[in-house]
Amino acid sequence: MMFEVKKLFVSARSVTLELPDGGLYNTRKAYRVFVNGAEWAPATTVVHSIYGLWPDTKYIVKVLDDKAEVGRIVFRTEEETYTLNVRRFGAVGDGKHDDTPAIQAAINCCPKRGRVLIPAGDYHVLPIFLKSHVRIEIQKGATLYLETDRTKFPILPGMTRSTDETSDLNLGSWEGNPLDTFASFISGYQVKDVVIYGEGVLDGQADKADWWLNHRTMRGAWRPRMFFINDCEDVTVQGLSFRNSPAWNLQPYFSRDLKFLNIHVTAPADSPNTDGFDPESCQHILLAGAHFSLGDDCIAIKAGKLYMGATYKTPCSDLEISHCLMENGHGGMTCGSEMAGGVHRVYLHDCLMRNTDRGLRIKTRRGRGEQGVIDDIVFENVLMENVGTPYVVNCLYFCDPDGKTEYVQTREKMPVDERTPRIGRIAFRNVTATDVACAGYFLGLPEKPIERVEMENVSITCGADAAPMAPAMACGVEKVSRKGLVAINVDKVVMKNVMIFGQDGVRLECENVGEVEE
Prior knowledge:
The chain is mostly beta strands.
């Protein structure tokens, strides 16, 4: 079988390719890879990166199934001005010496489109800050270990009033609000044209610190991320592994034109709030070939709480997520619940989810505001294995201190006002889910029902021994097992070639549903 090899990204020293042979995360078979005639490591994932290339050089990459060529691509690497090795700046790489000043000095001194090289070694560091027009390569065998003593961390203030009192500067953020936050492992503010790449590892060492203890209590400031960029553009993260984050792992914030390729994000299953990827109020993102295994949502698309949504009116929009593996988290891919600026045009396709509580998950609540519109969300060509509830849209999510109050949780109609969010069109196409407890749960607001849920070519199999679970985190939702689809407060449900196997009772249970089209 021949296929068209696609170039997703090329730098001076690396390239990321897509090998679309019909696989989801892994290719259907291992392929031999030849670069300018020399055989390199085999390709086993659909999104495949190659490192160790030379700047400003033409390359021909051939992909072979044994001896038969099935695809090829020709490209030229980018130019590079200089390479600055952090060892020459005084980095020791023994895991004990503080290598932060040496690495930061190399970054600060690096000329436009130069490379900061972090070779093999163990580097003990505090937060590192990016600057524009720099490439940072963390090579295979290099591990950066984050300091465990929070008293040594700088703090990013949540809000600073301008001198003339006409505007605010928002540097720190915590769960949708502008709050003081410890600087992240890798931080960037108003930088552009940045690439951080390689086969190295960033270890947050939260398993050796106190970040996960009393994690709902602010101590000095809120917990740092592994990667946090604020008001940045044209940033690419390629190939790196992130593990043991103190909090969320990767959070691009109010940023644009971003790529995250072939990354690996891991944390223990019981680690709190270790979301994998949380873009907040960002536009134009490609996330491809990522592997997540952690203690919370693998992907959570966000747009702030009410103050940020009403003040800045900046949605998270135009995201493509492809060929990713999500496992052992709470949700495979989530929108919300901090979504007061809105989430628009998200396309997730060709992904595999395993052993997550929920699969494709949307969560909001009264109080997120009229800017909080979730619309045009498409999930296509997805396989879910041992996922408790594969499809969830929950407009009564009981988060925040007031989450279980009468205002948030009542099933009676409330006035539609500036606090009322809205769910538009959600589509599921060519999706298979096996060993589920509940086929799907769609819970809208009685005063503002979910507008449209489309399911086409969907197959759901309930597990014979599926453990009972609450399909949605809302008051009054009981644990169920072997249950079909539930739709409450939905204007229209469209079901085309939807097959449900092994459920007890009806395949679709409706309450206040305007129209069902089958």
